[in-house]
Amino acid sequence: MSSYLITGVSRGVGFEFLRQLSENPANTVFGLVRNKAATESKVAAEIGRENIHIIQADTTDYVALEKAAQFVSEKTNGALDYIIANAALQAKTALVGFDTLSSDPGALEQDLIDHFRINTIGAIHLFNIFMPLILRGRAKKVIAISTGMSDPEMTLKADIFQATSYAISKAALNMAVAKFSAIYREKGVLCMAICPGAVNTGSLQIETEEEGQLAMAMFGKFKQYSPTFEGPQKTEDSVKSVLALVNKATVDGGYAGTFISHTGGKPYL
Ligand SMILES: NC(=O)c1ccc[n+]([C@@H]2O[C@H](COP(=O)([O-])OP(=O)(O)OC[C@H]3O[C@@H](n4cnc5c(N)ncnc54)[C@H](OP(=O)(O)O)[C@@H]3O)[C@@H](O)[C@H]2O)c1
Prior knowledge:
The chain has about 270 residues and is of the alpha/beta class. It is built from nine helices and seven strands; from the N terminus they run βαβαβαβααβααβααβ. Strand 1, helix 1 and strand 2 (about 30-35) form a beta-alpha-beta unit. The longest helix has about 30 residues, at about 105-135. One of its GO terms (molecular function) is oxidoreductase activity, acting on the CH-OH group of donors, NAD or NADP as acceptor.
């Protein structure tokens, strides 16, 4: 019935988008990954549906994205209903703030560039390359998965000093979404950024006791921001709520170009 393109489906939220969206056999779901063989094996073992197509494409590789668009176009007669830009980098530098990172300015600069390339520029190239297909699609929805960490209000409410490069790159992503909306809203395309809440995907890959303590300190900040926060939610629940919002949101309903939480309001957590 609908066609979907999702980036970063090898694990976490992306894999769950793939699973939930492919539940309807009438949907065609395309998933972009950096390791096609590994994800195909995982999909075969854990989902096993014919309506899923895994495509090799690092989102920082413009040519690979163009090839992906050609592949999708051949399968769908040149149209695409939904894009979900989900792939992201959240490096372990997220556990500390500028005061710590300032000890190595070169590493800090590289960290900022790495996050910006994947989290911001990757999505911008993706949207530009796939927009012709979206314009020929029926749903015409372009979604960026963002984070409440990119919101100055959330940051200031609990002095959340962590996740510097990550939050900055996602704030830029939110603005990119607004800029895309400024062009394509009139053509009926909904461009929107959505925070999925805190999700239990293990994305920070905590390994040491020190990292565990830093992660707990960050969760402490989340609780300070939102006193009802009891820890990350299940991936399944987060994706369900994001998709409910994606289905509900329309260009004319005040959603065009916005950045909002999966709950539809604040707090994000
Ligand atoms: N988890 C949370 O609490 C949370 C909260 C707010 C927002 N979010 C957002 O939700 C989205 C998913 O988060 P998650 O927790 O599922 O993250 P995750 O577990 O770290 O997964 C990230 C995904 O992005 C892929 N990826 C990274 N760089 C890529 C690149 N250059 N090209 C293609 N794919 C790339 C990874 O692929 P590889 O397997 O190849 O590395 C992986 O599939 C992200 O946008 C994140 O910022 C998450």
